[in-house]
Amino acid sequence: MTLLERLNLENQILLKDGMSQYLVKYSQSGGFYYIYGDYNSSSGKKYTIWCRLPDYYPSTCPSVYVYKPNPLIGYGGVYINSYEPSSHSMHTLKPSSSGEVQICHWRQSSWHSGITLNKVMIKVMLWFEAFEQHLLTGQPIDNFVSTMN
After folding, report:
1. In which band, very low, low, confident or very high, does the pLDDT at 146 lie, cut at 50, 70 and 90?
2. Residues β-bridged to residue 92
3. Quick one: fold of 3-143?
4. Cβ-count burial 98-135 (b if 16+ within 10 Å, e if not)
5. Could you tell me the residue ranges of all domains in the chain?
6. Contact call for residues 142 and 103 (beta carbons, < 8 A)
7. Global pTM value
8. Please, which residues have CB within 8 angstroms of residue 79's CB and are 6 or more apart in sequence?
9. Are 106 and 123 in contact (CB under 8 A)?
């Protein structure tokens, strides 16, 4: 299967699953594929994610960033990126060069080419819902979502 065939299949799956806001697009100027879309949480807050698909996708795990709001402020006014460059308890990885929070959605060691973007986006949406619980309670995100084994 070619990359273009795979991405067409990914978009069909995203559409079928009601995630049309996360369809894969192509940047003519940059020469890469990406996802850019909004998530409206159950409390009504809006978050924008950005994901440039890596050159070796689907063999390589894509990085997903919170594009807006940036900075992402957690409970008590604490910047989410201030926990560490990556935080197991907050399910974050190294932020982008412009400070965007990177959501940990899959262990690199567990990633394989059979994982589709709809599964990634479901985990991203769950992360936002857990983040909102963090905002209410101050508890870390890993209290609301479990780590994959």
Report:
1. confident
2. 87, 103
3. Ubiquitin Conjugating Enzyme (3.10.110)
4. eebbbbbbbeeeebeeeebbbebbebbbbbbbbbbbbe
5. 3-143
6. no
7. 0.95
8. 71, 72, 73
9. yes
